[in-house]
Design a protein that fits this description.
Layout: E1 12-14, E2 21-23, E3 26-30, H1 35-40, E4 51-54, E5 59-60, E6 64-67, E7 75-76, E8 79-85, H2 94-97, E9 101-108, E10 111-112, H3 113-121, H4 127-130, E11 136-137, E12 142-143, H5 144-147, E13 154-159, E14 162-168, H6 176-186, E15 193-196, E16 211-216, E17 220-227
Parallel strand pairs: 3-15, 5-11, 6-17
Antiparallel strand pairs: 1-2, 3-4, 7-10, 8-9, 8-15, 9-12, 13-14, 13-16, 16-17
The structure holds manganese (II) ion.
Manganese (II) ion binds near residues 29, 80 and 199.
Length: about 230
Protein backbone atom coordinates (compact mmCIF):
# COMPACT_ATOMS: atom_id res chain seq x y z
CA UNK A 1 0.00 0.00 0.00
CA UNK A 2 1.36 3.44 -0.84
CA UNK A 3 1.60 6.33 1.64
CA UNK A 4 -0.75 9.33 1.41
CA UNK A 5 2.11 11.73 2.15
CA UNK A 6 5.80 11.16 1.42
CA UNK A 7 7.32 8.72 3.94
CA UNK A 8 9.86 10.36 6.26
CA UNK A 9 13.53 9.48 6.13
CA UNK A 10 15.02 7.12 8.74
CA UNK A 11 17.16 9.10 11.20
CA UNK A 12 20.66 7.68 11.41
CA UNK A 13 24.13 8.10 12.89
CA UNK A 14 27.30 7.42 10.87
CA UNK A 15 29.54 4.57 12.01
CA UNK A 16 33.13 5.83 12.21
CA UNK A 17 35.40 4.71 9.39
CA UNK A 18 32.81 2.63 7.53
CA UNK A 19 30.77 4.86 5.17
CA UNK A 20 27.74 3.14 6.74
CA UNK A 21 25.13 4.37 9.18
CA UNK A 22 23.15 3.08 12.16
CA UNK A 23 19.37 3.56 11.74
CA UNK A 24 17.80 5.06 14.87
CA UNK A 25 14.41 3.87 16.03
CA UNK A 26 13.93 5.57 19.43
CA UNK A 27 16.02 7.64 21.85
CA UNK A 28 15.83 6.78 25.55
CA UNK A 29 17.54 8.88 28.23
CA UNK A 30 18.51 8.11 31.82
CA UNK A 31 17.41 10.87 34.22
CA UNK A 32 20.07 10.68 36.93
CA UNK A 33 23.19 8.56 36.80
CA UNK A 34 26.20 10.46 38.21
CA UNK A 35 26.26 11.37 41.91
CA UNK A 36 27.89 14.80 41.51
CA UNK A 37 25.24 15.84 38.96
CA UNK A 38 22.42 14.66 41.26
CA UNK A 39 23.95 16.81 44.00
CA UNK A 40 24.35 19.90 41.78
CA UNK A 41 20.62 19.79 40.93
CA UNK A 42 19.62 19.08 44.54
CA UNK A 43 18.00 15.70 43.88
CA UNK A 44 17.64 12.63 46.08
CA UNK A 45 20.80 10.53 45.80
CA UNK A 46 19.04 7.33 46.84
CA UNK A 47 16.38 7.36 44.11
CA UNK A 48 16.81 4.81 41.33
CA UNK A 49 17.34 6.35 37.88
CA UNK A 50 14.34 6.78 35.62
CA UNK A 51 13.86 7.13 31.87
CA UNK A 52 12.46 9.71 29.48
CA UNK A 53 12.47 9.81 25.67
CA UNK A 54 13.36 12.02 22.75
CA UNK A 55 12.10 11.40 19.24
CA UNK A 56 14.52 9.86 16.73
CA UNK A 57 14.20 12.86 14.40
CA UNK A 58 15.59 15.11 17.17
CA UNK A 59 19.04 13.67 16.43
CA UNK A 60 21.63 16.11 15.10
CA UNK A 61 24.99 15.24 13.52
CA UNK A 62 28.56 16.09 14.54
CA UNK A 63 29.39 19.65 13.49
CA UNK A 64 25.76 20.79 13.60
CA UNK A 65 24.70 24.37 14.29
CA UNK A 66 21.71 24.41 16.65
CA UNK A 67 19.65 27.60 16.91
CA UNK A 68 19.01 28.72 20.50
CA UNK A 69 15.61 27.08 21.09
CA UNK A 70 12.29 28.81 21.73
CA UNK A 71 10.59 29.39 25.12
CA UNK A 72 13.72 29.09 27.30
CA UNK A 73 16.07 31.44 29.13
CA UNK A 74 18.24 28.62 30.48
CA UNK A 75 19.43 26.33 27.67
CA UNK A 76 21.98 23.80 28.99
CA UNK A 77 24.37 21.05 27.84
CA UNK A 78 24.61 17.50 29.23
CA UNK A 79 27.36 15.35 27.67
CA UNK A 80 26.47 11.65 27.75
CA UNK A 81 27.68 8.24 26.58
CA UNK A 82 25.26 6.97 23.92
CA UNK A 83 24.61 3.22 23.60
CA UNK A 84 23.23 1.88 20.29
CA UNK A 85 21.32 -1.43 20.35
CA UNK A 86 21.38 -4.02 17.56
CA UNK A 87 18.73 -6.22 19.23
CA UNK A 88 16.62 -6.20 22.36
CA UNK A 89 13.63 -7.73 24.09
CA UNK A 90 11.75 -7.57 27.36
CA UNK A 91 13.21 -8.37 30.79
CA UNK A 92 16.83 -8.60 29.63
CA UNK A 93 19.13 -9.97 32.34
CA UNK A 94 22.01 -7.63 33.16
CA UNK A 95 24.57 -10.37 32.47
CA UNK A 96 23.18 -10.76 28.91
CA UNK A 97 22.53 -7.06 28.24
CA UNK A 98 25.80 -6.17 26.52
CA UNK A 99 25.11 -8.83 23.86
CA UNK A 100 22.46 -6.41 22.51
CA UNK A 101 24.87 -3.45 22.09
CA UNK A 102 25.98 -2.51 18.57
CA UNK A 103 28.27 0.30 19.65
CA UNK A 104 28.89 3.56 21.46
CA UNK A 105 28.97 7.28 20.72
CA UNK A 106 29.24 10.72 22.30
CA UNK A 107 26.00 12.67 22.63
CA UNK A 108 24.57 15.80 24.24
CA UNK A 109 21.19 15.78 25.98
CA UNK A 110 20.37 19.43 25.21
CA UNK A 111 17.96 20.72 27.85
CA UNK A 112 15.69 23.72 28.39
CA UNK A 113 16.48 23.60 32.12
CA UNK A 114 14.02 26.29 33.24
CA UNK A 115 11.15 24.48 31.52
CA UNK A 116 12.27 21.08 32.84
CA UNK A 117 12.36 22.45 36.40
CA UNK A 118 8.95 24.11 36.00
CA UNK A 119 7.51 20.78 34.79
CA UNK A 120 9.03 18.98 37.74
CA UNK A 121 7.45 21.44 40.22
CA UNK A 122 4.04 21.07 38.58
CA UNK A 123 4.41 17.26 38.34
CA UNK A 124 4.01 17.53 34.57
CA UNK A 125 5.89 15.51 31.92
CA UNK A 126 9.39 16.62 30.85
CA UNK A 127 8.88 16.88 27.08
CA UNK A 128 8.92 20.67 26.93
CA UNK A 129 12.30 20.73 28.67
CA UNK A 130 13.92 17.74 27.00
CA UNK A 131 12.25 16.86 23.74
CA UNK A 132 12.64 19.52 21.04
CA UNK A 133 14.18 19.95 17.58
CA UNK A 134 17.88 19.03 17.41
CA UNK A 135 17.94 18.27 21.15
CA UNK A 136 20.06 15.11 20.68
CA UNK A 137 23.35 15.76 18.84
CA UNK A 138 25.32 12.51 18.53
CA UNK A 139 28.74 11.85 17.05
CA UNK A 140 29.81 8.87 14.94
CA UNK A 141 29.38 5.46 16.56
CA UNK A 142 32.22 3.04 17.27
CA UNK A 143 31.22 -0.64 17.07
CA UNK A 144 31.62 -2.77 20.19
CA UNK A 145 33.24 -5.36 17.90
CA UNK A 146 36.09 -2.86 17.54
CA UNK A 147 36.35 -1.10 20.94
CA UNK A 148 34.66 -3.56 23.33
CA UNK A 149 32.35 -2.31 26.08
CA UNK A 150 34.03 0.62 27.85
CA UNK A 151 33.35 0.78 31.60
CA UNK A 152 35.83 3.55 32.33
CA UNK A 153 37.25 6.55 30.50
CA UNK A 154 37.06 10.32 30.80
CA UNK A 155 33.81 12.02 29.69
CA UNK A 156 34.17 15.76 29.23
CA UNK A 157 32.65 18.89 27.64
CA UNK A 158 34.09 22.33 26.99
CA UNK A 159 32.48 25.57 25.81
CA UNK A 160 34.63 28.06 23.87
CA UNK A 161 37.71 26.12 24.96
CA UNK A 162 36.92 26.22 28.71
CA UNK A 163 36.18 22.92 30.43
CA UNK A 164 32.67 22.71 31.91
CA UNK A 165 31.92 19.03 32.50
CA UNK A 166 34.32 16.32 33.56
CA UNK A 167 33.69 12.83 34.84
CA UNK A 168 34.51 9.21 34.21
CA UNK A 169 32.32 6.41 32.90
CA UNK A 170 33.31 4.42 35.99
CA UNK A 171 31.31 6.94 38.07
CA UNK A 172 27.97 5.92 36.58
CA UNK A 173 25.64 4.78 39.37
CA UNK A 174 23.95 2.28 37.01
CA UNK A 175 26.29 0.81 34.41
CA UNK A 176 25.32 0.19 30.77
CA UNK A 177 24.25 -3.43 31.37
CA UNK A 178 22.10 -2.43 34.34
CA UNK A 179 20.52 0.45 32.39
CA UNK A 180 19.55 -1.87 29.52
CA UNK A 181 18.19 -4.44 31.97
CA UNK A 182 16.17 -1.84 33.92
CA UNK A 183 14.76 -0.15 30.81
CA UNK A 184 13.74 -3.52 29.36
CA UNK A 185 11.39 -3.97 32.33
CA UNK A 186 9.25 -1.06 31.13
CA UNK A 187 9.45 -1.46 27.35
CA UNK A 188 10.52 -4.08 24.83
CA UNK A 189 13.85 -2.78 23.56
CA UNK A 190 14.84 -3.33 19.95
CA UNK A 191 17.37 -2.84 17.18
CA UNK A 192 17.90 0.85 16.50
CA UNK A 193 17.19 2.02 20.04
CA UNK A 194 19.71 4.57 21.31
CA UNK A 195 20.17 5.10 25.06
CA UNK A 196 21.73 8.26 26.53
CA UNK A 197 23.17 7.18 29.86
CA UNK A 198 23.16 10.33 32.00
CA UNK A 199 25.54 13.24 32.52
CA UNK A 200 28.36 14.05 34.95
CA UNK A 201 28.46 17.28 36.97
CA UNK A 202 29.10 20.70 35.46
CA UNK A 203 25.94 21.32 33.44
CA UNK A 204 25.60 25.03 32.64
CA UNK A 205 23.92 27.58 30.41
CA UNK A 206 24.64 28.08 26.69
CA UNK A 207 24.44 31.27 24.61
CA UNK A 208 24.26 32.00 20.87
CA UNK A 209 27.76 31.87 19.42
CA UNK A 210 28.99 29.19 21.85
CA UNK A 211 31.20 26.43 20.47
CA UNK A 212 30.79 23.14 22.30
CA UNK A 213 33.32 20.34 22.08
CA UNK A 214 32.89 17.12 24.04
CA UNK A 215 34.10 13.57 24.08
CA UNK A 216 34.54 10.24 25.74
CA UNK A 217 38.07 8.82 25.80
CA UNK A 218 38.33 5.77 23.55
CA UNK A 219 35.07 6.55 21.72
CA UNK A 220 35.31 9.94 20.02
CA UNK A 221 34.39 13.60 20.08
CA UNK A 222 31.44 15.77 19.07
CA UNK A 223 31.27 19.45 18.10
CA UNK A 224 28.14 21.61 18.24
CA UNK A 225 27.72 25.32 17.68
CA UNK A 226 24.85 27.37 19.13
CA UNK A 227 23.35 30.04 16.85
CA UNK A 228 20.87 32.89 17.29
CA UNK A 229 17.22 31.79 17.65
CA UNK A 230 15.65 30.64 14.36
MN1 LIG B 1 20.64 13.91 30.54
Amino acid sequence: MSFVIPAHATPSIPVAGTGQAFPVRRIWCVGRNYLEHIRELGNDERQPPFFFAKHADMLAPDGVTVPYPSLTKDFQHEVELAVALKSGGLNIAADKALDHVYGYGVSIDLTRRDLQMASRKKEQPWEIGKSFDQSAPCGALRPASEIGHPSKGKIWLSVNGAERQKGDLSEMIWNVAEIISKLSLQVSLGAGDLILTGTPAGVAALSPGDNIECGVDGIGTLKVQIAEPA
